[in-house]
Specification:
about 90 residues; mainly alpha; Lysozyme; 5 helices; about 55% helix
């Protein structure tokens, strides 16, 4: 894992633990979504480490890494539950 993602390991482990999600899964998602850049913004307007759309976390400052990770993992867990506890489908959502 590159240092750009490893630097967020404490925050990733904290949020992953709160939600009961494998921190390695979250780290890989951060790598794929933003490369570990907390200030990343996509052409679609997704923000931060986990590329969260503001409409999925209204009123939250998604440029704050801990806020972004929490919003991203929360959304992931929602999708996991929506897709009958299927991680593949949740991740694709």
């Amino acid at each position: 894992m590159p240092e750009t993602v490893l630097r967020w390991s404490p925050q990733i482990k904290e949020v992953a633990g709160q939600y009961g999600v494998d921190p390695d899964l979250i780290a890989v998602m951060v790598l794929c979504e933003s490369g570990g850049a907390h200030s990343a913004v996509s052409h679609a307007g997704a923000i931060g480490l986990m590329q969260v759309l503001p409409m999925n976390a209204p009123g939250k400052n998604l440029f704050i890494p801990e806020v972004n990770l929490t919003a991203g993992v929360d959304y992931l867990v929602q999708q996991y539950n929506n897709f009958r506890k299927n991680w593949k489908e949740a991740i694709l959502a």
